[in-house]
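can u do me a favor
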């Protein structure tokens, strides 16, 4: 029994394989970075007192790891259920939005601290950043498709 594949099928398979290699390499490097700095990071986190900025740091630091793990699961685990696939895709979207918002908030806090809490700078940053956040969240909420191979 011999099966023939079209050039489009082969190109799609090569593209998915390249995508898988990229995800695995990112995961490997990121896991290595976390493992190498974990003892220093935990020492810092456990010694210092808990603040809102520290909570924002933890969310900013670890949510992308959850996002990557969820994307890996969505990409590599065979799933024939479109409902579950859409739920996982929505989780990925939510984690992506949370990661982007927290990292931008962390950046804004650092910038304001470097500029001695200048109110004019804060207003300028918020005026330029908030419309982008609202547009991104609106775009993700209106999305009615799933990016996995089952639903497409």
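np, heres the sequence
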């Amino acid at each position: 029994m011999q099966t023939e594949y079209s050039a489009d099928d082969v190109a799609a398979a090569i593209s998915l394989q390249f995508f898988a290699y990229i995800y695995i390499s990112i995961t490997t490097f990121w896991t290595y970075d976390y493992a190498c700095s974990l003892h220093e990071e935990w020492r810092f986190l456990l010694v210092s007192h808990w603040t809102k900025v520290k909570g924002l740091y933890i969310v900013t630091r670890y949510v992308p790891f959850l996002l990557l793990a969820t994307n890996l699961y969505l990409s590599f685990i065979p799933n024939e259920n479109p409902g579950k696939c859409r739920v996982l895709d929505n989780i990925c979207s939510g984690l992506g939005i949370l990661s982007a918002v927290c990292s931008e908030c962390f950046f804004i806090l650092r910038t304001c601290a470097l500029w001695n809490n200048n109110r004019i700078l804060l207003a300028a940053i918020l005026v330029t950043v908030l419309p982008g956040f609202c547009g991104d969240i609106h775009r993700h909420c209106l999305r009615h498709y799933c990016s996995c191979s089952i639903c497409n």
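The chain has four helices and no strands. hope that helps!!
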